[in-house]
Specification:
The protein is of the alpha/beta class and 244 residues long. Helix content is 28%, strand content 20%. It has a single domain, classed as Purple Acid Phosphatase, chain A, domain 2 (4-Layer Sandwich), CATH 3.60.21.10. The strands form two sheets. The chain has a six-stranded mixed β-sheet with strand order 5-6-7-8-10-9, covered by helices on one side. It has a five-stranded mixed β-sheet with strand order 4-3-2-1-11, with no helix packed on it. Helix 4 packs parallel to helix 5. The protein is globular.
Length: 244
């Protein structure tokens, strides 16, 4: 059993949504088809794929349904988190009734029982080491800290022995933030995130081990549209084979 991750699918299959991604550079040419081809090559029905936000360009849920259906038709269990562009994300309890292979994560965790691993997370927010904070930013930063704590507390309540955290925004650029401190407090092993696009922006997120947590950027263009293997039950998360 394996766990993969890829953020920022930026899908727009609904005919009402006109958001061609190739305007953002060659890394986005035919990106949905490239993801589909790689996903179906790598992922089995027994595997889990984490999608940390910016899933669909739809503004309302009905405009995002074609994109969610596309994800549903791919193999594996999927764990989805909200990104800053997921304006369609609404009524979390209703979203969770839509598909039996897609878990919309918010204030809870997704427990992978065969691996005794909990997937936790929140959307996150730009951190104080990135932007000058307004009162609105402080409010959102605190709210997302609360959601992250709620998610991690649920993993502890269940008794999961290992925790993977997913966020849409980078939890830090280079300095320690409340997000990184919370993850250290709860003993998180890995944190994956997206949101950053292009070679210049890729440098604006923490990477590698910090405070005992392994941080990885998994935005679509950074991965070349290929889901990233982050855990393999045969090798464990720390084996080199799981890091390639």
């Amino acid at each position: 059993m394996k766990i993969y991750a890829i953020a920022d699918l930026h899908l727009s299959f609904d005919e009402r949504i006109d958001k061609p991604m190739d305007v953002f550079g060659a890394g986005w040419d035919d990106h949905a088809e490239r993801v589909r081809a790689a996903w179906t090559d790598l992922v089995t029905e027994a595997d889990v794929v984490i999608i940390p936000g910016d899933i669909s360009w739809g503004l309302k849920l009905d405009e995002a349904m074609a994109d969610l259906e596309w994800i549903h038709n791919l193999p594996g269990q999927k764990v989805l988190l909200r990104g800053n562009h997921d304006l369609w994300w609404c009524r979390i309890q209703y979203l969770r009734t839509l598909y039996d292979d897609m878990h919309f994560l918010q204030n809870d965790c997704y427990y992978i029982e065969p691996l005794d691993i909990a997937v936790c997370g929140s959307r996150g927010w730009p951190t104080p080491d990135v932007i000058a904070y307004t009162e609105h930013d402080r409010k959102m930063y605190l709210r997302e800290q609360g959601r992250l704590r709620n998610s991690l507390s649920e993993a502890k309540r269940i008794g999961a022995s290992r925790i993977i955290t997913a966020m849409h925004y980078p939890p830090a650029k280079t300095e320690e933030t409340e997000f990184t401190r919370i993850m250290q407090e709860f003993g998180v092993e890995q944190c994956i995130y997206g949101h950053l696009h292009g070679m210049t922006a890729w440098e604006n997120g923490i990477k590698g081990e910090y405070g005992g947590v392994d941080y990885r950027l998994v935005s679509l263009d950074y991965l070349g549209a290929r889901p990233k293997l982050i855990y393999d039950s045969e090798f464990g998360a720390d084996d080199k084979a799981a890091r390639r």
